[in-house]
Design a protein that fits this description.
The chain is mainly beta. It is built from eight helices and 98 strands. The strands form 25 sheets. Strands 90, 92, 93, 96, 97 and 98 form a six-stranded mixed sheet that branches. Strand 45 and strand 46 (about 760) form a beta hairpin.
Length: about 1450
């Protein structure tokens, strides 16, 4: 079954989200609800009437069947029934009357409102018509009176014939004419794009004439810049009129071909609406074939010239992709105006690929331009993943599901697609939900689980073995609504023009339980699902319907409900989960609120299977030439084209077997133009068909085709020049056509005509092959013009533009005539080569040279390329500006002077072509010298032309030319110094492909040497003769040849004497590797000399020598002796690695070595300066590594460190001198470890100032450290002192001031890197540090100047009773301290027994005369001034005479106790 297209209501439906905030959505739902309420009310009334009538009928039946009754009872029953009937009838009539009255009243109100509206409309229309009639009558009257008045008094200018637009080629003439009348005679002025045209400004460019009211503007030899809008303004005293027309001058573009590419079989529909205005449309610039990638932005634009250019009226512009009319969307934006039409894609997808046509419609016809837009896949999210699917569309939308279809991607360069994932997104959200759990294998899927009335968009992702593709472009929004609801709407016409819309349900009878659905059938069948369709029951009733589907396996006899959980609301449903290989039958049950219907008829048995199969491969593929970069591919269609989505085309460079996709979106036609190919390359093509199931097998490959332009007639010649004239004949020359049409030009046909004659006459009946022709039998004094046409194998091309008018009069000037046929070659970024031909008319003497002039295109000033004339007919012009356009001319010179300049050349852009190739020189396998050139752009008609000094090389015994395909070589037969010079090559029928090569003396010698080497071959050597010294002191001489045959021979020669294989000279040769060697066990002073190896292999030979004399021999001999001694040393215990050092992470210096060949008896010792150096740990000889750790190395560790090994087999020693450079390197290594471990700078305040500290693992003054303040290096001074200890480096800032604020940096250098630590000592940090420094400084000052006891008092004094005790001490303080003595913490009363003496405020003594036992106790001295003081206690012990002296400890210095300063002590 073909899918149902999206109905019209879906296209016009405005999709909103689930909030239903839109007015239209709310109105639609309210209308649905009103209709349902009306239908429910009508059904309830009818059911009530049926119930009452049935009751009456039952009562009458019961009376009739009851037998005999009395009359009274019968009468009473009858009256009761009549009353009941009368009451029911009255109730029903009242209801009907009320309903009818309400309906009639509503209808009357609407009718009255309508009549009032009609009356108002008629009144307004009548008033407008009357007003318009009066206005029209007055306008006609005023116009007539005005016309009559103007006729009587004046005649303003009036244009009778307007200007017409013209389109011409460059160098053609164009004439604009118009007719104007008026009195007085109008004055006419001509304008170009609003600027007045002046004949004097450009003499000969414009010719303006006026004859009997006909005014003419003639533009001679129109240039591309003459494209403009030309206006003529006629003015007299009575008025002014104007007319305008467009002139389009087309330029033949050198990068285009003179024929159009083959079009695709895409037909556009005829325009339905044609504008009433006539416009002349000319395309100035067109968009070409475009290549882009998904996700990019691109604009297709054409520049137009529309005449007339009206602001309010424009022609109709249409854009088509293939044959589909485009409209603006979120992906495409269109613009037309300001002389251009554009189509912009904001985000490209492969859906946008196709043939784009710009169609401009007017009453004058249709103007079209078309080109293909290719859109490649974006980079995949996963390497190897397929491209995104495209063209996602929604079909068969209803309340329950939507069928989504899409087109598969082209997987030429990826693995095949194994399935697809479908995602949905509800409009108004950005939440994408995957619809299927497992990949779908066909490009069609019914999405279920939708909510009625909501709108959705869908996208698809492809899956292969590598991963999942990018998502496709989202589909257009579709609403989950059932189109059947709108089909049941019916319009009922009333009297007049009124009509009402009702549901068909309103016309149906009173149906309660619906009937069964009809026409139940399978509308779509595949392995994944089947779609079951049916027709709703008729009549269906007024209640909402739902459906239940039941399935049964054929033969089982049991039925299973498919949608038991959710009823179906639309008469279509997709059924999944069918067992493969089983046949099923289906039936449908309809339901409403009253109940279920009977089941429908059973469908025919059906089995889930794919109705579609993979399409067959397309038939034969044919290819044909199209342009230089494109090929036309045609193929036979697939045998079964039903439900075919299109074709994919692939291409491959012939022989590579690497296939690339040509199109990224399936095309529906069997012809395709493949663009973007490489000119000159050969390609093969294949095609595959695509449908919803997948892609077919690839077709057979096409024949290989070379990419080049198709054959066509040649373009026209140009540059017709008069070279000579004798009064009866003229000699003409011209230039070869720019394009030969792909075939060699066979000749030229020349036509002539006299001035003022219309008919052309042929000059030659047979084509002339040369581009110079003498035209005879002319009339002297007459003017002639000529045109020339070229012919090739295809036919005769278009003739050239008519030449200038040449006057037939004899040339008698003594100066030479013009040079002709100016051509360019070797155009590069700053230079080019100009070629020309000698004048036919040489004048009174032979031509002696030429001047070459050039100027920038558009400039008026000519510049001479050389100060003196050149004798050659070529010149390389240098020092040009890249990207500039120049024109050239040539002037011939003879003894009489400078002749007539040649015609100005066509403009040439000084810029190297992309991919420019140059001539290369080489030598072939036989030793022949050649020059080579490749030209991939050549065609079948192209030919290589080799020149020496820009003169074509003909049949010369010195040269031979070999050309195969696009490759050509010029061989030198017998090269000698006479072959030096400039060689050039050009390729005809191309866009000026040419190159040159200067064969100078140096290059010639190189090529001759290479040729001689090939003709007289030598055996190439991979390595020349060299020597190698073995570990036992043996010397090996060897060389290696590139390749040696089994028949190769060789010999060794030492000092002109051949040596053979012997015990002293062991010689051998490995011919498989080409290595020849000789080993000498004993190398002594007798072996000094020259060593030579001579090799012969067929005709080839080679020789290599090695000179070992003098210092070179001594170096080899010493190395051999050293290796011999080393070998002997290693026979006993020895050092495998000598002593060396490193620094550990703990900044310890480790001196270590590796030993080998040791045993238990081996003795290892460390020595420093030949003295035994004891270590904490013995060496570990078994591990083979011995090490010595030197912590905190400094200069005291300088010295010679030695390690010794000794046993019965021998001894060995290794020495390391740690001093000088070694010590400096060790310090740098320690600096690296310390620099890495350095802590951040810290601030420490002292009484002297502020100290910055940096802690590290080890610090020594030998390390290269620097301090910086504000990026300036700090020099050590009294103000700032740098120093350190083993744990840290510091900078002492003495007596800091405000100038010391700023950034401080500590830097330690390790020889390579600087390790830095930075501290910003400013702001609060400096203030805090400065305040702490002031406090510490004050405390230190107080400590220095406070009162104190310097010394002299013991802590314990023992004395015998009766003696005199003298306690003397020295005190200090500034100012002088106050001294107070205490006894047992009480003031000591001075008397004759206790006396205190202070001398010089420094020496204090206390004397106790006649000590008694009562004098025992604690005596204290207080020494105090304003900065503080201290207290010292002395214990005095008195014993009696004769008693034993107490056993006390020896007296010690008494310890003072510090006393605080007074509060009034001033700060220092």
């Amino acid at each position: 079954m073909s899918l149902v297209a999206v109905p019209f209501y879906q296209k016009r439906h405005k999709h909103f989200d689930q909030s239903y905030r839109d007015i239209q959505a709310r109105y639609l739902l309210s209308e649905y609800a009103a209709k349902k309420r009306t239908s429910t009310r009508s059904s309830s009334q009818q059911s009530l009437m049926q119930k009452s009538s049935s009751q009456r009928a039952s009562s009458q039946t019961s009376l009739a069947q009851g037998g005999t009754v009395c009359r009274l009872c019968a009468k009473r029953v009858s009256s009761t029934q009549e009353e009941s009937e009368h009451e029911d009838k009255g109730r029903y009539q009242s209801l009907v009357a009320l309903y009818g009255e309400a309906k009639r009243q509503r209808y009357l109100n609407e009718l009255a409102e309508l009549e009032e509206n009609v009356h108002l409309a008629r009144t307004e229309a009548r008033e407008k018509l009357d007003k318009y009639a009066v206005q029209h009558m007055m306008e006609n009257k005023l116009a007539w009176e005005s016309h009559m008045f103007e006729e009587r008094i004046r005649r303003a200018p009036e244009i009778l014939v307007k200007l017409r637009s013209h389109t011409v080629w460059e160098k053609m003439s164009v004439r604009l004419c118009f007719t104007v009348q008026g009195f007085p005679t109008p004055v006419v002025q001509w304008y170009k794009d609003g600027s007045l045209i002046s004949q004097a400004a450009e003499p000969g460019k414009y010719r303006i004439e006026s004859t009997y009211g006909v005014h003419t503007l003639e533009i001679n030899r129109a240039h591309f810049d003459d494209t403009a809008t030309y206006s003529a303004v006629a003015t007299n005293v009575h008025g002014q009129v104007s007319t305008s027309a467009a002139v389009v001058v087309r330029r033949f573009r050198g990068d285009e071909e003179p024929f159009c590419s083959v079009g695709l079989p895409v037909g556009l529909p005829l325009p339905s609406v044609v504008p009433h205005m006539h416009f002349d449309v000319q395309f100035l610039e067109k968009f070409g074939v475009t290549f882009r990638r998904e996700g990019e932005t691109v604009t297709l634009k054409c520049t137009l010239l529309v005449t007339p250019d009206l602001k309010r009226v424009q022609p109709r512009v249409e854009w088509y992709r293939d044959d589909v009319l485009l409209k603006e969307s979120q992906w495409t934006k269109m613009f037309f105006g300001e002389g251009q039409a554009s189509l912009t894609f904001s985000h490209l997808n492969k859906d946008d690929e196709g043939l784009y046509t710009l169609r401009i419609l007017s009453r004058g016809g249709v103007s079209e331009h078309r080109a293909f837009l290719f859109v490649r896949d974006a980079d995949p999210l996963v390497t190897g993943a397929p491209g995104a699917p495209m063209d996602v569309q929604c079909r068969d939308a209803n309340r329950d599901y939507v069928i989504v279809t899409w087109k598969p991607p082209n997987t030429t360069t990826q693995s095949p697609v194994i399935g697809y994932f479908i995602d949905r997104c509800e409009v108004g959200t950005n939440n994408w939900v995957q619809c299927n759990d497992s990949p779908v294998k066909i490009c069609k899927y019914p999405v279920t689980g939708l909510f009625e009335g909501r709108s959705y968009t869908f996208r698809v992702r492809a899956v292969n073995n590598a991963g999942v593709s990018r998502p496709s472009r989202p589909s257009e929004a579709v609403a989950a609504l059932d189109p059947v609801d709108l089909r049941r709407l019916q319009a009922v016409h009333l009297e007049g023009d009124k009509e009402i819309v009702i549901y068909q349900d309103d016309l149906e009878g009173d149906v309660q339980i619906p009937g069964p659905p009809t026409n139940v059938h399978i509308s779509e069948n595949n392995k994944t699902y089947v779609v079951l369709s049916w027709d709703p029951p008729t009549p269906r009733g007024k209640e909402p319907l739902t459906y239940f589907i039941e399935k049964s396996v054929v033969g089982s006899g049991s039925w299973q409900r498919v949608n038991a959980q959710m009823a179906v609301r639309s008469p279509r449903y997709a059924i999944f989960d069918l067992a493969e290989g089983k046949s099923y039958v289906f039936r449908v049950v309809s339901a409403n609120k009253h109940g279920l219907s009977d089941p429908s008829e059973i469908t025919a048995p059906i089995q889930a299977q794919d109705a579609l199969v993979t399409p067959s491969a397309p038939g034969q593929v044919l290819v044909s030439r199209n342009t230089k970069t494109s090929v036309v591919v045609e193929w036979d269609r697939s045998k079964c084209e039903e439900d075919l989505l299109g074709y994919y085309v692939d291409c491959s460079v012939a022989g590579s077997n690497v296939w690339e996709p040509c199109n990224h979106k399936p095309i529906g036609y069997n012809r395709f133009v493949v663009h973007g190919l490489t000119t000159g390359e050969q390609y093969v093509f294949r095609v595959k068909a695509v449908n919803a199931v997948g892609t077919s097998e690839n077709s057979q490959e096409s024949d290989a085709i070379k990419v080049q332009g198709a054959l066509t007639v040649p373009s026209h010649p140009y540059g017709i020049t008069l070279l000579s004239c004798d009064g009866q004949s003229m000699t003409l020359g011209w230039k070869v056509p720019r394009f030969s049409g792909g075939s060699a030009i066979l000749g030229y046909f020349v036509d002539k005509r006299e001035a003022q004659h219309k008919n052309w006459h042929e000059v030659n009946a047979a084509p002339v092959k040369e581009r110079i022709l003498k035209v005879e039998n002319l009339t002297e004094g007459s003017l002639y013009e000529f045109k020339i046409a070229a012919t090739n194998l295809v036919g005769i091309g278009q003739p050239s533009d008519p030449s200038e008018l040449f006057k037939c009069e004899a040339w008698t000037a003594p100066e030479p005539g013009p040079a002709y046929d100016l051509t360019f070659c070797e155009v590069r970024d700053t230079s080019l080569v100009l070629l020309w031909k000698a004048p036919v008319y040489s004048g009174s003497s032979a031509v002696s040279g030429y001047f070459v002039d050039y100027k920038e295109d558009g400039s008026e000033e000519w510049t001479s390329a050389s100060e003196v004339p050149t004798a050659n007919r070529y010149l390389k012009v240098c020092d040009l500006h890249q990207g500039k356009t120049y024109v050239f001319r040539v002037r011939a010179v003879n003894s009489s002077g400078v002749g007539t300049p040649s015609d100005t050349s066509e403009p040439v852009l000084v810029e190297a072509r992309p991919g420019t190739k140059e001539v290369s020189a080489g030598v072939d396998e036989e030793g022949n010298i050649f020059l080579s050139f490749d030209c991939p752009e050549m065609t079948d008609a192209s030919q290589f032309t080799w020149c020496k000094s820009y003169e074509e090389i003909g049949d010369d015994e010195k040269f031979r030319i070999d050309t195969v395909g696009d490759h050509s070589r010029l061989y030198f037969q017998n090269p000698d110094v006479g072959d030096l010079g400039t060689y050039s090559v050009s390729v005809s029928d191309t866009d000026g492909v040419s190159s040159s090569f200067v064969l100078d003396e140096g290059e010639f010698e190189r090529l001759m040497a290479l040729s001689n080497e090939i003709r007289n071959p030598t055996i190439p050597l991979k390595s020349e003769l060299a020597y190698e010294i073995f570990d036992r002191g043996q010397v090996r001489f060897w060389l290696q040849a590139e390749q040696l045959s089994p028949d190769a021979t060789f010999r060794f020669v030492i000092n002109d004497r051949e040596v053979s294989d012997s015990d002293t000279h062991r010689i051998k040769c490995d011919k498989s590797t080409g290595v020849i060697e000789m080993v000498m066990d004993q190398f002594t002073t007798d072996n000094e000399g020259t060593y030579t190896v001579q090799i012969h292999d067929g005709k080839a030979k080679s020789q290599s020598s090695l000179v070992l004399i003098g210092d070179a021999f001594k170096a080899v001999l010493e190395e051999a002796e050293f290796q011999r001694k080393e070998f002997l040393r290693k026979q006993g215990p020895h050092f495998a690695e000598q002593l060396h050092w490193d620094v550990t992470e703990e900044c310890e210096v480790r001196v270590f070595c590796k030993v080998a060949n040791t045993k238990k008896e081996t003795v290892f010792k460390w020595l420093k300066d030949d003295a035994l150096y004891e270590t904490d740990t013995p060496p570990d000889l078994e591990r083979g590594v011995c090490e010595l750790l030197i912590p905190k190395m400094s200069k005291k560790d300088h010295g010679e460190y030695k390690a010794t090994l000794k046993d019965d087999r021998g001894q060995d020693a290794s020495i390391l001198e740690i001093s000088g450079k070694v010590y400096e390197d060790i310090v740098l290594a320690m600096s690296r470890v310390c620099g890495l471990s350095a802590s951040p700078l810290k601030v420490l305040c002292t009484p002297e100032g502020i100290r910055l500290q940096c802690f590290m693992k080890y610090f020594t003054e030998e390390m290269r450290v620097n301090w910086y303040h504000k990026d300036a290096k700090v020099a050590s001074s009294e103000h700032m002192r740098a120093g350190g200890s083993e744990e840290m480096a510091w900078l002492q800032i003495c007596e800091p001031t405000e100038k010391d604020k700023g950034k401080y940096m500590f830097e330690i250098f390790d020889g390579k890197d600087n390790h830095q630590r930075v501290l910003d000592l400013s702001g609060q940090a400096f203030d805090d540090a400065f305040a702490e420094f002031q406090q510490l400084k004050a405390a230190a000052f107080a400590e220095k100047n406070r009162g104190k006891v310097i010394g002299g008092l013991p802590d314990v004094v023992t004395i015998m009773e009766g003696k005199t005790l003298n306690l003397t001490c020295t005190v200090f303080g500034n100012p002088d301290p106050e001294v107070v003595w205490f006894k047992n913490d009480k003031d000591l009363e001075l008397n004759e027994h206790f006396s205190v003496k202070v001398e010089q405020a420094k020496y204090v003594s206390m004397t106790i005369k006649g000590v008694t036992a009562e004098d025992s106790g604690k005596y204290s001295i207080n020494v105090k001034n304003k900065y503080g003081g201290e207290k010292i206690d002395v214990t005095v012990s008195v014993y009696k005479h004769g008693e034993k002296i107490p056993d006390l400890q020896p007296p010690q210095q008494a310890q003072p106790k510090r006393l605080p300063a007074s509060d009034s002590a001033p700060a220092p």
